[in-house]
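Running this now, will post back.
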Amino acid sequence: MKVHAAALGFLALFATLGLVAAQNPPTREPDPAKPGEQVAASQEREPDVRAITDLLASFVKTYNSKDPKALGALFTPEAEIEDEDGDITRGRDAIVARFAETLAGSEAGTLAVNTESLRFLGTDLAIEEGTASLTVSAGAPPQTNRYSVIYARQGGRWLHARIRDEQPDEVTPHEQLLQLEWMLGEWVNESDDGIVKTRCKWSDDGNFLLREFDVKVEGRIALRGTQHIGWDAQRKQFRMWVFDDRGGFAEGLLSRDGERWIIKASGVRSDGQSVSTTNAFTAIGKDRILWETLERTVGGEAVPGNDQYFLVRPAPVPGK
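Update: finished.
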């Protein structure tokens, strides 16, 4: 079977982009903090631990429901919030106004909290430390920072007396790429046009995922290439660079859309024509990926139709 150069060009581009992004399942939002599981409280303090656990869960739920007045009710009248820049908001009314402004903006996001420690400073005081994560939009990594909270019991009820946010922890490119470590190893796609195999490994410094691919047609290697995947610190997205051994190349950006990943890529095929694609990837089980073409152009002209195929991990070799 002789494959037309244009078909091979498409196959090559899809091979280089096709495995970039689908197997990683949707990140589960961390449960609200469970202080009772983080500390060894004496038996007489267990009711207080449960009350503070419920208070923190209410804070997370109320924040995510975007209700500033209800949030204010979880603070003492004289409470303070100190942000990572050292600015302090004092008093319940000012705190309500602060949350009203924050929650009305596009950066309000979805909050998740993980408690690391809770200890009591007296009968009616406790301090908690942990990390808070804010997810602003689908596809963007959460913004994470450390925090501490002083709780005070007033009128028999535990309330927030002071919250202090610390500077966000810097997430390294390697830590970002851990979202895509499912790509490590081998994948294969077989179609009437040929067989595409890929192999993925970490770079020596752990800051890139390196992929090699080859396309076989009628049992012979028709094209080989490489792909680098790294973290774009400015755009807060994954960026990809692809080169094949016939002069084709492409560059793309990856973002998340619910349960699937979207890749927008553009480049030049090995036959010299410019090409751009928008692809979607969805995990179907542990070792299978649904790939779809949403849009594509060649030489500036739109190409009609949607392509779909499945990517799978190869079966293990008997005896290994």
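The longest helix spans residues 46-64. More later if anyone needs it.
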